[in-house]
């Protein structure tokens, strides 16, 4: 540890003492016995600690620890409606609600200090106000440029950005109204004024093909191309595995190993093998691409991979964490090719318990590249042609299915939660226009891989938890008390009371999911429950995974597309070879928390970008179908209308203001809309036929109207709908 860090730690420790009262710089210098000639250095250290949020300087220029001054340091999560939450740096501290008038110009993900204005009482979340912004997270804004006589402004695509960004005339740099642009922020917003910026890039006309996806990529810092030094390193990597590379590894090339993945997948980073032992136990082998052999720590490839954090699967393209020569080539477990791997071999009994395991470096040769569809057809429909073609593997598939179902039962029995949300597959033409949206089916073949990867990740996490060495775990904290109380009331009103409310166990939530399965309320109950949960994230601490009801969990099985998995592979190698020195351990202890934080941030950004591109194409798809009628199911009922989900997973809103046949009253206890005159009810789960009234691509909003209110309604109803569309398209 360097001398500067020692001084910082000493000052923080001194201020944390119970007897400490906030002191001025001159007073601290006296108490800490700092010579007069070194007081400038002390001021620099205090300023650095203040910037890190470890100490706080009051208006009277006295220094203290934020926690002892009713202050909390953390990152702002801003909602598009203006309010936000402070997520404290202290992972054990609860989130703090910040109302819109207390944001003081803070933007999404800014590091800030919040003063507590209302403490947590009876499960109600504490409230606060931003008093200082320590670090700005948003440095640029992507949006649509608009012009006026004396200045320009950018309307942000990201609705979490507060207000438009003001652009002075001399900073417009050739942008024209209606173009998508990137504006770098010169002055950040405060409580009284909007942000000010300058145009640094023109993406293109907002109506041009492809500009929509490029704008989303710019918003989330997603880049398809790699820097020159990264590509130079990639060029030096051989395309094949040589004998020298295999030295010291266990040779598993004669073992029957296969990959099972989607039809479109090209980055095959996991393969599996299975044997039934004489005692009836299964020997499951999970073989993961050894990316760490090629991506060495601190290299250009490694720095770029950490910057990206994860591969991103947008609706029309994949933005890989690693260049394609690695992700689709020498690291991908392609059939018939020798590949370096990390193997976790597990002996599992008939109840799904892992009796013993072994983790080692290996070399494998996948015998087949299977798809989920083909494995499903072999197991469930007994497709004759496929069964003949893969006759040498059919017994393996049956054993895999039996083991996967056993592992799943064991997980469910311990209380793991299983959300059954439908996924969508958007089909695009060569110009990027959506031509179809389909429901993506999850089959037994998907479940096989899911269960095998889960048990492998748990086994690795538990193994390294007990070594005590620095590690990166995947954690999921218990839900916030206020959120779970709100969900419990919601579920009870729908007839699904929650057990053990004050010391919630995931099994109690799983019980609700089981009771609601197949019922009309299943989707909304699952959705509201999921929203009451904390988000899973990466951490250097092992505190378990609430949703999986797992005491130990990590991400080990996808190093081609996730940086934490790559880090874990390196750590395993160091542990296997006994190469972890005291100095190295200290370095990892200090470095891994920041790696975990960054990877969690990039994962969230990837998720949001993927969801935005999918939502964008869904709205574009429905824009071409305005006036068409679809069958749907009411998925949620609110005070302003009801959401209707279609068979293809697309969801739209029927506004109360568009329900022309009656005046509807919202029953907030039973989540129903009731016609005042007719008594007609609309409830969650009711089937309805809806007409597509409007699809707003910019707002990502689809509006439906009930078909009967238009086709069977009055002339006045039809005129109102026509008038609304005419003025809102």
Task: For this entry, give a set of tags.
alpha+beta; Arc Repressor Mutant, subunit A; OB fold (Dihydrolipoamide Acetyltransferase, E2P); 6 domains; five-stranded antiparallel beta sheet; 33 strands; 33% helix; globular
Q: Spans with pLDDT under 50 lasting ≥5 residues?
A: 712-729
Nearest-integer average pLDDT:
91
Helix content: 25-40%
Largest sheet: 5 strands, antiparallel
What is the strand tally? 33
Helical stretch tally:
19
Gyration radius, in Å: 28 Å
Tally of individual domains:
6
Order of the strands making up the biggest sheet: 5-4-3-6-7
Q: What assembly state would you assign to the polypeptide chains in this entry?
A: single chain
Structural class: alpha+beta
The best one-word shape is globular
Calculate the terminal CA-CA distance, rounded to whole Å.
Answer: 62 Å
Instruction: Tell me the strand percentage band.
Output: 25-35%
What does this structure look like?
The chain is an alpha+beta fold and 729 residues long. The chain folds into six domains: 3-66, Winged helix-like DNA-binding domain superfamily/Winged helix DNA-binding domain (Arc Repressor Mutant, subunit A), CATH 1.10.10.10; 70-135, Beta Barrel (OB fold (Dihydrolipoamide Acetyltransferase, E2P)); 140-208, OB fold (Dihydrolipoamide Acetyltransferase, E2P); 228-476 and 541-613, no CATH class; 481-533, no CATH class; 625-728, Beta Barrel (OB fold (Dihydrolipoamide Acetyltransferase, E2P)). Helices cover 33% and strands 26% of the residues. The protein has 19 helices and 33 strands. The strands form ten sheets. The protein has a five-stranded antiparallel sheet. A five-stranded antiparallel sheet has the order 10-9-8-11-12, covered by helices on one side. The protein has a five-stranded mixed sheet with strand order 13-20-19-16-15, covered by helices on one side. A hairpin with an 8-residue loop joins β9 (151-156) and β10 (165-168). α4 (211-219) runs antiparallel to α17 (582-623). The longest helix has 42 residues, at 582-623. The protein is globular, with a radius of gyration of 28 Å. The chain starts with a helix and ends with a helix. 35% of the residues are buried. The model is unreliable at 712-729 (pLDDT under 50).
């Amino acid at each position: 540890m360097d001398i500067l860090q020692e001084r910082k730690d000493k000052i923080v420790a001194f201020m944390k003492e119970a007897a400490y009262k906030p002191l001025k710089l001159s007073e601290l210098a006296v108490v800490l016995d700092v010579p007069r000639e070194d007081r400038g250095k002390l001021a620099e250290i205090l300023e650095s600690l203040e910037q890190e949020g470890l100490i706080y300087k009051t208006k009277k220029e006295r220094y203290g620890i934020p926690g002892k001054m009713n202050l909390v340091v953390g990152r702002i999560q801003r909602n598009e409606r203006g309010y936000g939450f402070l997520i404290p740096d202290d992972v054990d501290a609860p989130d703090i609600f910040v109302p819109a008038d207390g944001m003081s110009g803070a933007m999404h993900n800014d590091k800030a200090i919040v003063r507590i204005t209302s403490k947590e009482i009876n499960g109600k979340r504490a409230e606060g106000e931003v008093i200082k912004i320590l670090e700005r997270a948003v440095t640029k804004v992507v949006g649509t440029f608009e012009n006026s006589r004396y200045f320009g402004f950018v309307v942000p695509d990201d609705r979490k950005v507060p207000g438009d960004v003001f652009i002075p005339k001399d900073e417009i740099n050739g942008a024209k109204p209606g173009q998508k642009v990137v504006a770098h922020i010169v002055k950040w917003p405060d409580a009284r004024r909007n942000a000010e910026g300058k145009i640094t890039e023109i993406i293109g006309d907002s109506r041009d093909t492809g500009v929509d996806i490029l704008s989303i990529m710019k918003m989330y810092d997603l880049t398809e191309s790699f820097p020159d030094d990264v590509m130079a390193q990639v060029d030096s990597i051989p395309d094949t595995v040589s004998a020298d590379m295999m030295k010291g590894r266990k040779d598993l090339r004669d073992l029957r190993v296969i990959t099972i993945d989607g039809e479109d997948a090209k980055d095959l980073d996991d393969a599996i093998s299975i044997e039934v032992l004489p005692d009836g136990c299964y020997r499951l082998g999970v073989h993961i691409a050894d990316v760490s052999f090629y991506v060495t720590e601190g290299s250009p490839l490694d720095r770029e991979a950490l910057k990206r954090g994860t591969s991103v699967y947008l609706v029309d393209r994949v933005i890989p964490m690693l260049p394609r020569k690695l992700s689709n080539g020498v690291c991908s477990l392609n059939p018939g090719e020798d590949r370096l791997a990390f193997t976790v071999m597990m002996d599992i009994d008939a109840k799904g318990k892992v009796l013993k395991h072994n983790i080692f470096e290996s070399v494998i040769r996948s015998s087949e590249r299977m798809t989920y569809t083909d494995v499903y057809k072999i197991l469930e429909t007994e497709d004759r042609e496929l069964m003949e073609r893969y006759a040498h593997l059919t017994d393996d598939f049956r054993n895999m299915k039996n083991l996967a179902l056993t592992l799943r039962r064991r997980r469910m029995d311990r209380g793991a939660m299983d959300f059954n949300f439908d996924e969508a597959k958007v089909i695009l033409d060569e110009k990027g226009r959506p031509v179809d949206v389909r429901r993506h089916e999850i089959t037994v073949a998907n479940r096989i891989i899911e269960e095998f990867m889960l048990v492998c990740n748990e086994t690795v996490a538990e193994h390294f938890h007990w070594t005590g060495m620095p590690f990166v775990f995947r954690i999921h904290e218990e839900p916030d008390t206020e959120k779970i109380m709100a969900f419990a009331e919601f579920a009870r009103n729908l007839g699904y009371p929650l057990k053990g409310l004050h010391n919630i166990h995931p099994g109690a939530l799983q019980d609700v999911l089981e009771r609601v399965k197949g019922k009309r309320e299943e989707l909304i109950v699952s959705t509201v429950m999921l929203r009451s949960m904390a988000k899973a994230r990466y951490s250097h601490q092992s505190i378990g995974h609430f949703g999986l009801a797992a005491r130990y969990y990590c991400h080990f099985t996808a190093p081609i597309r996730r940086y934490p998995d790559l880090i874990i592979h390196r750590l395993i190698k160091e542990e296997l070879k006994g190469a972890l020195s005291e100095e190295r351990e200290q370095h990892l202890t200090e470095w891994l928390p920041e790696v975990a934080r960054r990877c969690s941030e990039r994962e969230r950004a990837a998720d949001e970008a993927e969801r935005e591109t999918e939502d964008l194409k869904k709205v574009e798809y429905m824009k071409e179908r305005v006036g068409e009628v679809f069958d749907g199911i009411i998925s949620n009922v609110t005070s302003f209308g009801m959401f209707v989900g279609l068979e293809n997973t697309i969801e739209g809103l029927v506004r109360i203001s568009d329900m022309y046949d009656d005046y509807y009253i919202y029953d907030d206890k039973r989540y129903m809309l009731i016609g005042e005159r007719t008594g007609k009810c609309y409830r969650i789960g009711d089937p309805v036929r809806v007409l597509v009234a409007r699809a707003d691509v910019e707002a990502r909003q689809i509006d439906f109207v009930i078909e009967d209110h238009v086709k069977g309604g009055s002339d006045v109803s039809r005129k109102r709908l026509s008038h609304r569309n005419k003025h809102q398209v």
